Amino acid sequence: MVRKIFLMNFIAGISIFGLVVILAGCGAGLPKDLKNEAKILPNAIKTGKSQVEKHKDKYLDLKKLSEFKALERFAIKENWDSKFQMAMDELTRAKQLYDKDLKPLVNKNKPELAQEVKQQITRIKKILQEADAFARYPAARFIKIRETLQNIDSLYARSKKDAEQISRIEGRIKTGALATALADFPDLSEKINTRFAPLSKLERQSKDHLNVVAAEFAKHSTGAVVDYAAFTDSSQALYSGLEQAKLLEAKLKAAMGQLYESYTKILKDMKEEYFVTIKRESWNENSDYYDPRFVTFQRQVSEELYSALMSDKIDTIASITAGFTGSRFSSNIGSLWKELSINPTEQWPGRGHNAASFFVEDSRQVYFHKYVLEENGETRETDWEKVDESFYEANLEYLGMAILTKPYGVFEQDRLTQAAPPGIAYVGNSKYGEWKKDNTGNRFWSWYGKYALFSMIFNRRPSYYSYNSWNGWNNNYRNTRPYFGKTQDGFQKYGTSGAIVKQSPGFQSTNFAKSGGFKSQAPSVRGAGANLRGGGPKSKGK
User: With the CA atoms of 340, 341, 346 and 352 taken in that order, what torsion angle do they form, in degrees rounded to the nearest 10?
Assistant: First the structure.
């Protein structure tokens, strides 16, 4: 007995010592990859300097070419020679930043400095890139202008076509999607024109660039002095401008199309599911040697059982103990053990095992939503959709509410993400209905045919939004905060705790209601699986 206890304690001591060493190595300083990234920067700076010299030598070789003479005036005007010194100055600045700002942080080797270290690394890397660009510029600039000189006829023809296509693209949008949107949504003229402005500006700039290209080409044709650098830059601007115009056209068409689409996402139901992995560790209590065997059981469980299993008061949830008359099973979670449907001796090993402990090895919670989706007046109910815990938590109070809405005449980026009663974001928009007066003279919103669903989403009898309730939401809540409304008695009207949802037969039959969600929205076990207990017996055997 004494020998076995000594052996077990010795093994446990080694394990604890090893764990301490591991933890000390993991959490004591900066991440290893970050330190390595910082430490290679001095060599990168040295390499950068040697690269500057190589680019300079390449440029000096180019200057010896006879064709360089024709372009030398551009080298002088743009001071190409100075670029190498500018590159060296940047590399010197990078070295100074490393020595002054980054190296001391790395030497401190504190994990809380990781973000600052990362920022300094990024800053120095950007300077290295700028230095490289300076060093490459002279040779690259010479080659580019030389290509212009050699291919000026074809470049002029291409530039004219590029400018023409940019103009056609601008015209198609202006007289097509833009004009239609302005006619259909005059109140959005400022937002629509703002989106069109980049393409309009690009088209104006393309005309200016074409004028430069045409003027310099005319000089070339007559043998006058030509600014081939200006021709090169404007020709390149037209080439890249056409690609940009194509992207803007597609983007604008999509944006204008958004104005003719509407949808609402209503939270219809929600549920949580709980899963655990139970591990059994068995051993021979009568053996001088510790020879354990492990078996795992994966189960989906109820919230009640999950809560019991996650209790801090329980370490081992069940055990099998050896005795003179045989082994005896006992549960530390009472009758809840039956819900696990685990045969305590299932897959029982041989080798004389007569004792065991059961504990929670792993646990997880899975969250689901079910929605009613309305799209352009057509509705459908989704199946269960998995959502993450933070999103589930954030929407617990919004059952029966629209958690996402995009009416007609609204761009996608302006959609409503603040929870509100279903359809209230559509009220006041003539695409969906109109204001009418009841017998007492009060104004209410009357829906057009296929949007009548919003008047019957809670009850079988139609209900309508009054002008006062809509106006209060529109002026004080729209796009800023959730709106739950008030009943005549002053109670919350909408949402999970609202009177309408609680009284609605449709919501009383939901999974949320049946699981007791209306009784309490308190997250009783949510997140409880984050800190699992280490299972298994503390000492086993003789």
Answer: 60
